[in-house]
Amino acid sequence: MEKRRSFCRFCGTNCAVIATVEDGEITAVCGDPDDPVTQGYICTKGASLGHFHHHPARLNHPTMLRGGGQVRVEWTEALDDISARMRTIVERYGPSAIGAYGGTPAVPCASINVWRGFMAALGSPSVYSTVSVDVPCIPLLSERITGNPMIASQPDPDACMTILIGINPVVSHGHVYFLPAPKAQLRRWAEQGELWVVDPRRSESAEAATRHLAIWPGSEYALLGHAVRALLREGADWDFLERYVSGVDAIRAAVERFTLEDAAAATRLSPEEITDFVSAIRKAGRIAVHCGTGVSMGRNANAATLLHWALHAVTGSLDRKGGAYFNPGFARNLSEHGWTAVNTSGPGPASRPDLPSRLGEYPCAALVDEIEAGNLRGLFVFAGNPLIALPDTQRLVRALGKLDFLVMMDVVETASTLFATHLLPTSGQLEMADVVLWDFMNPAEYSRYAPRVVEPAFERRPIWWILRELSRRLGIDGGIDDAASHDDDVMRPMLNSARASFDVIKANPVAQMSEGRTYGWMHRHLPSGRWNLEVPEVLDQLAKACVETADFLLIPHRQKNKLNGQMSDGIANPRRPDKASISMHPADALLFGLHEGGRARVSTTKGMLEAPVRFDSRYRRGVVSVPHGFGHINVNVLTDARSTDPLSGMVQLGGIPIQIEKAEHAVV
C-alpha cells in the first residue's frame, strides 16, 4: 500500500489530495493536511476520485461507429480514419469546416489545453468552449474595462463587507474564482464584518450570511444601479475615482434612473431592505462583491456585470486589501509582466453573423446553426458533454447526426458519446501529471505539481499524444514536441513566465506559494493607468434593461455531489445521489395541485420537460429551478439557441418565463 500525492481537477479549486494505491487500485482519496493552500480540505466530489477512476463506464479502448454500434479498433486504424476524413473535408470545404468544443473538465488540466494549438495549426476558427455557456459577460467587461479579457476579481478573504450575488460557493466552490473550504471562509467574512447574499433562494451560503436579500431574478442590475447612484451622491471615494477611473460621468448618467422606488419595483425587495444595503456599504467603506451564474446566465448579465465593477470603483475597492482582489497568478505572473491591451472581438460564423467571436472562439449558441447550414462538417469534443451543456438540445441531437465525423475524447461514457463516430479513451486525472495554471482565480498565489498516481491503464492515452499523432498524419505543427514522451514535456513550457521554474514547482511535494497576496499592482498595467467604466454598448443595454414580469421564472442551480454533467450518475455519493427535480416553494406548488414527489411539467416557448416536484421553502415565491447536468431530464430542452445576447453570445439560461402544470400522465 502506498500514499501518493496529487490534486483534484473536478473544478478549479484544485484541492490537494492523497491517494491510497494498493496493487494498482486506488482504494481511497483524502485531503492533504500538509498542503498550505487547501490544508486538508476536500469535498465529496474530490473524495470520489478513486470511484470515478474505476468507473464502470470507463473508456478503455478506441472504438469506431460501424453498423449502428461502437466497434473496438486499434489506435492506428482510428487515427488513420480520422485524419483521412479530415483531409477530405479540408480539401472540399476548407479547414473552418472542422470544429472543436472544449468542455469544463478540460480547463483545470494543463496538458489538455494543447487542443487550441492544434486547431490553430489546422487553420480553423471554428473553436467553441464552455466559456460561452455560463460566463461570457466576464471576459467581455474585463476586456473593455482593463484591456485584458482574462482579468477576474474575487472577494478579498480579509473583506469587512462581502456581497455575493447569485452564487452559492458552499455548493459550487465559486464561479470564475474557486474557494477551498467555503463554509470556513463564509463564517470568517460574517465574523469579521458583514456577509450579504443576494439570491432568489435562501441558499446554503445565505444560511451563513449576516443578511439575505431574496431578489427577483434578472433584476440585480437595478439593485447595483441604485447603490452606485446613492454612493455617487454621498459616500463615494472621490480621490480613488479621480486618480484611477475613467467614465465616471457616463456611469453617473446611466444610474440616475435607479431611484429607490424604481429599484424596489424591479427587485421586488422592500425599500427598507435596499436602504439597509446601501447604508451597510457606506459604513464599510471598502467592499468585496462577486456575481455568479445567477447573474451571468440572465438576460441582463452585461449590465449587472458593468455595475458590479462600478460599485467596486465608487467605493475605492478595486485592487485594494479588503476589496476586489486581483490575483496576478503564480504562473501568469501578471504583476511582473503585465499585458498588452487587446480587443478580442471578431466576426462571427457565417450562419450567425449577429454573434461576434471572442477570445478566439465562437459562441456555443452558434454550433447547431453551423452544422445545420453545412458549414461545420466534422467536430472534435475534448472532455465535454455538449448534449447536456449546450442550449436547444433537440436541435443539437438532430444536428450531431449530420456530421461527417464526431470525435469524442473522454474518460467515461456520457450522453454525448452515444453519437460519436470515433470514441477515444483518454488518461484520467490520476493517470496524468499536472500543474496548477489557473491559480489566478484562487485566493492564494501558488502553483502545485501532481505526478501520475498510476500509469494509464488499458489503451488510454493523453490528449496531447492523440493530437500529436493526428498532426503527424496531417503534416501540421500542432505545437507538441515530437520528442515529448511524458506530460511534463508538454507542461514545462507553460511555466516560462512563472514565479518559479517548472522543476522547482515539481520538486516541492506541496504547493509552491508566494509570500502573500499582491495588491495595488493593476494600475501599472491598465491602459493609461485607469479603469475604464465607459463601455458604450453595455451602457446602451443598461439603458434598455428591464425585468421579466411573468408569474413564474426558471433559474439554474448546482448540486453538491456533482459538477455540471460529471458524476450526475450519483457515483460521488451513491447513498444520497443528486437527482433531477423541479424545485419550488410549497405554496406555489399548491396553486397547481402538486404534491412533493408528484410529477409536473415545465414548458417554455421552446420545449417541455417533466420531472418530480421537490418542495423547498427557501425559494422566493414565483421562482422555480431545475438543475442542469442530467441527460434524461435535460433543462436545456427549455432553452433557445437563437435567444442570444448580441455582445457576449450568451444564451439566456436564467430568469426564463415558464408555464407549470400537473402531469396527469407520464410522458413516454
From TrEMBL:
PROSITE patterns: 4FE4S_MOW_BIS_MGD, MOLYBDOPTERIN_PROK_1
Record keywords: 4Fe-4S, Iron, Iron-sulfur, Metal-binding
All copies of domain 4Fe-4S Mo/W bis-MGD-type, residue ranges: 1-57
Stored InterPro entries: Asp_de-COase-like_dom_sf, MoPterin_dinucl-bd_dom, Mopterin_OxRdtase, Mopterin_OxRdtase_4Fe-4S_dom, MopterinOxRdtase_cofactor_BS, Prok_Mopterin_Oxidored
4Fe-4S in keyword set: yes
Gene3D superfamilies: 2.40.40.20, 3.40.50.740, ADC-like domains, Dimethylsulfoxide Reductase, domain 2
Family to which the UniProt record says this protein belongs: Belongs to the prokaryotic molybdopterin-containing oxidoreductase family.
Protein name, per record: Molybdopterin-dependent oxidoreductase
